[in-house]
Write a structure and sequence with these properties.
Layout (H helix, E strand, L loop, with lengths): L5 H10 L11 H27 L9 H21 L16 H4 L14 H29 L1 E4 L2 E5 L16 E2 H13 L4 H14 L18 E9 L2 E12 L12 H17 L3 H4 L1 H15 L29 H17 L7 H22 E3 H8 L23 H6 L5 E8 L2 E7 H9 L5 H13 L1 H4 L8 E2 L4 H8 L20 H10 L3 H12 L11 E2 L5 E2 L8 H15 L13 H13 L17
Antiparallel strand pairs: 1-2, 3-4, 4-5, 6-7, 7-8, 8-9, 10-11
The structure holds alpha-D-glucopyranose (GLC).
Alpha-D-glucopyranose binds next to helix 6.
Catalytic activity: Hydrolysis of terminal non-reducing beta-D-fructofuranoside residues in beta-D-fructofuranosides
InterPro entries: 6-hairpin_glycosidase_sf, 6hp_glycosidase-like_sf, Glyco_hydro_100
Enzyme class: hydrolase
Length: 622
């Protein structure tokens, strides 16, 4: 039997030729149909996922656990269904663009426009849209709840993907720290705080786990990329079992890369939890304070580097395999800045942490100066680079990093709009990576790593380059893709990262939520609303894929998982925030006057003026 998801059922109704309201599919009967079938179909759909889930998947070493986890998560689903007095938000308060013609996915039905007056059609379309939207949201909530992982009967996270069609699970059956962030935010916005609190405390325990790879241990304070709940025999008792958390710090992950972003996201989520729940007891706990400090110490430790940006290996974040982002990738810098800002708010002032707080403040100023000044490109800056002198030795060099103008890629000369700009992907000696990386740009806006003007210019660029960055599915993870020899050399011929696929210019719907927060921060929510509308027309129908392929994001990714949790959660967070933009504040940070003063002090003492070695030693104590 083919069991249809609720939104699929409704989409089928929408695909029927458009007819007058008094015929078979009148609006009234449509609503009745929706309500009636909504509950039945959703339940059947859930059951079918449960039944297909395990027997169909090839055996892995954690099969028992999967059965167990799913048992408990399905029984949790029963609970949440009765709890789900959750009502979708009032559509009137959402920011959807009025122009139904432009963004209406129902339009492609081939109906005759002459049957109804255009006003009638628009009215009905609007009503249908909001009903469809409600159903899709309800399906997303159901799926999100089905992805919940339990540990000792408490919810502690969400599985990365719950794809019954996938033949190889790899590590998608684990709770990824970065993937849980949108899930956690969705739960916070829905005032479900326990799962987030549990997640924060359990991952904190993993932070001090003994971790080694070939006898080498990474720095203390590292947070895992992911973990899973395993059921193991109880020591000394063959008849009993216990559940344990099994973290992966990169020692098992493909490519063996340490996740630099996990700890940074953990700090950001911790602050969001406090702001949203009002519960200050969590952040005041000694173990939580110690956890924050351990992450900070690891990030602020002295190294060989000349830059205030964090120096990392390739693939230390959302892009977790070789893509030529090693060095000082923007995504890490934006999360680093955001985590420093959040930690600054949360660290308890005590004698022992005075040095750490001073180091943190100095780094914030230096980091924002560095990014705003050297990562920024717009037409004017590009023209400056085009005319750069090279091989400048001395403190007052203009072209500090010795960038050869020929590095400006031909695509960018055409691509850069007259109005707008963005932060480049990476800066190293004699090397600028001019690719546009979305997450780093969004989060630089959210955290105030960039100025207000720069933030607006980033949104202007997104608007101007909509056809390249959004097209048929928001949002390109980076633009443009590496092709030909560049792809061979930079990715190492990675068959998953072929041009316009996966990390190499693929379109990732999860990025919607970060886009939404950035747009709300700049008071331009209509940009995000436009993107949500495009995604909403496809996501549920396509079974919530992890990513899309091709230049315009037209195909579901070749190796894309279906029912990818952060696709589902990202959509929900966007919808919830657009309906209630004030709530986005739990994720934003603003530059305060202390930082602004320290920053202007740095600008007057620096940048292109003569600067001797003594001056460069100066610290700014905020
Ligand atoms: C992929 C993504 C990574 C994500 C993981 C689990 O590896 O690149 O960012 O955390 O899948 O969804």
């Amino acid at each position: 039997m083919v069991v249809m998801g609720s939104s699929e059922a409704i989409l089928q109704v929408f695909r029927a030729p458009f007819v007058k309201p008094d015929s078979t599919y009148s609006l009234g009967s449509f609503i009745k149909y929706k309500k009636k079938s909504g509950s039945n179909v959703v339940r059947l759909f859930k059951c079918s996922s449960i039944y297909h889930q395990f027997p169909a998947i090839p055996t892995t070493r954690f099969d028992n656990l999967k059965d167990k986890r799913f048992e408990s998560s399905s029984c949790k689903c029963q609970n949440t269904e009765s709890v789900s007095g959750f009502t979708t938000e009032n559509e009137n308060s959402t920011w959807f663009v009025d122009n139904a013609k432009e963004f209406n996915t129902i339009q492609e039905t081939g109906r005759s426009p002459n049957l109804l007056g255009s006003e009638d059609v628009q009215k009905i379309e609007k009503e249908n849209e909001s009903s469809l939207s409600d159903v899709i949201e309800q399906e997303a909530w159901d799926l999100l709840r089905e992805s919940i992982v339990h540990y000792c009967s408490s919810p502690i996270g969400t599985i990365a993907a719950n794809d019954p069609t996938s033949s190889s699970v790899l590590n998608y059956d684990q709770v990824f720290i970065r993937d849980f962030i949108p899930s956690g935010i969705a739960f916070l916005l829905n005032e479900e705080y326990d799962i987030v609190r549990n997640f924060i405390l359990h991952t904190l325990q993993l932070q001090s786990w003994e971790k080694t790879m070939d006898c080498h241990s990474p720095g203390q304070g590292l947070m895992p990329a992911s973990f899973k709940v395993r059921t193991v025999p109880l020591e000394g008792d063959d008849t009993a079992t216990e559940e344990v958390l099994d973290p992966d710090f990169g020692e098992a992950a493909i490519g063996r890369v340490a996740p630099v972003d996990s700890g940074l996201w953990w700090i950001i989520l911790l602050r969001a939890y406090g702001k949203s729940s009002g519960d200050t007891s969590l952040v005041e706990r000694i173990d939580v304070q110690t956890g924050i400090k351990m992450i900070l110490k690891l990030c602020l430790a002295d190294g060989f580097d000349m830059f205030p940006t964090l120096l990392v290996a390739d693939g230390p974040c959302m892009i977790d395999r070789r893509m030529g982002i090693h060095g000082h990738p923007l995504e890490i810098q934006a999360l680093f800045y955001s985590a420093l800002m959040c930690a600054r708010e949360m660290l308890a002032p005590e004698d022992g942490s005075a040095d750490l707080i001073r180091a943190l403040n100095n780094r914030l100023v230096a980091l924002s100066f560095h990014i705003r000044e050297y990562y920024w490109v717009d037409l004017k800056k590009l023209n400056e680079i085009y005319r750069y002198k090279t091989e400048e030795y001395s403190y007052d060099a203009v072209n500090k990093f010795n960038i050869y103008p020929d590095q400006i890629p031909p695509w960018l000369v055409e691509w850069m709009p007259n109005k707008g700009g963005y932060l480049i992907g990476n800066l190293q000696p004699a090397h600028m990576d001019f690719r546009f990386f979305s997450l780093g740009n969004f989060w630089s806006v959210v955290s105030s790593l960039v100025t207000v003007d720069q933030s607006n210019a980033i949104l202007d660029l997104i608007d101007a380059k909509w056809a390249d960055l959004v097209a048929d599915m928001p949002f390109k993870i980076c633009y443009p893709a590496l092709e030909g020899q560049e792809w061979q050399i930079i990715t190492g011929c990675d068959p998953k990262n072929t041009p316009w696929s996966y990390h190499n210019g693929g379109s990732w719907p999860t990025l919607l939520w970060q886009l939404t927060v950035a747009c709300i921060k700049m008071d331009r929510p209509e940009i995000a609303a436009r993107a949500v509308k495009i995604a909403e027309g496809r996501l549920a129908q396509d079974k919530w894929p992890e990513y899309y392929d091709t230049k315009r994001g037209r195909f579901i990714g070749k190796q894309s998982r279906l029912f990818q949790t952060w696709t589902i959660a990202g959509y929900l967070v966007s919808k919830l925030l657009l309906a209630n933009p004030i709530k986005a504040k739990i994720l934003m940070t603003d530059e305060d006057s202390d930082l602004v003063n320290a920053f202007s002090c740095m600008i007057t003492s620096n940048p292109r003026k003569k600067r001797g070695p003594k001056n460069s030693q100066k610290t700014y104590i905020v």
